[in-house]
């Protein structure tokens, strides 16, 4: 199967891409700016016998997404879409301005919306599709210094349920994976704050999660064993939240 993982040049996205390649899928590594990172992931996958191709994609731009999907289609029909690309920003609520809000929503919510719309053309034609949206525990229990981030991720959970309900009849499943505190570059800044350190100390399992553990959940959902699961949010959070 052909898969696209957005934001695949590092962190959770690279872990997901590597796992899907190990599963035997041809993986397109979506990146916006970090070409070097995407190439490193591509080479890592190829060194293990997998098939990967780095592809530039700005998920907040309909034109960029369409151009990327046209390139992917030369290899075949897209069957797996993992919406992982996201940005984060630590900022008190009263300091968030309109540009901050719009930028956050543009990448973290409109981006998956655009990618899903463009992917559905391929998936509905073949009566087969697996969509996984990477959300966040912040979208489930709320945020303090990342309220715009938490709002976008909460919206992504709603989008997941709606797509699942609407397109199940077309052979398409849509699920979300919600990581807690994962050891990545994106979470490093939060974990340096007092609030971040407190959250880390309260993880019931007693440690941060890994990108590989998030990737394992995605692998299950897009594989044969996940075919009857749709509209769900799978928590990978070490017991931080049970909703």
CATH topology name: Rossmann fold
Number of helices: 9
| The CATH fourth-level homologous superfamily | NAD(P)-binding Rossmann-like Domain
Q: Terminal Cα separation, in Å?
A: 32 Å
What does this structure look like?
With 243 residues, the chain is of the alpha/beta class. It has one domain: 3-Layer(aba) Sandwich (Rossmann fold), CATH 3.40.50.720. It has helices spanning 11-22, 35-47, 62-73, 98-126, 138-141, 147-167, 185-191, 194-201, 211-222, and strands spanning 2-5, 26-31, 51-56, 78-83, 129-134, 172-179, 233-236. A seven-stranded parallel beta sheet has the order 3-2-1-4-5-6-7, with helices on both faces. The chain is globular, with a radius of gyration of 17 Å.
Short summary of the structure?
The protein is built from nine helices and seven strands, in the order βαβαβαβαβααβαααβ. It has 243 residues and is of the alpha/beta class.
Name a few traits of the molecule:
single chain, 243 residues, alpha/beta, seven-stranded parallel beta sheet, 7 strands
Write the layout of secondary structure elements.
Layout lengths: L1 E4 L5 H12 L3 E6 L3 H13 L3 E6 L5 H12 L4 E6 L14 H29 L2 E6 L3 H4 L5 H21 L4 E8 L5 H7 L2 H8 L9 H12 L10 E4 L7
Parallel strand pairs: 1-2, 1-4, 2-3, 4-5, 5-6, 6-7
Helix pairs in contact: 1-2, 1-9, 3-4, 4-6
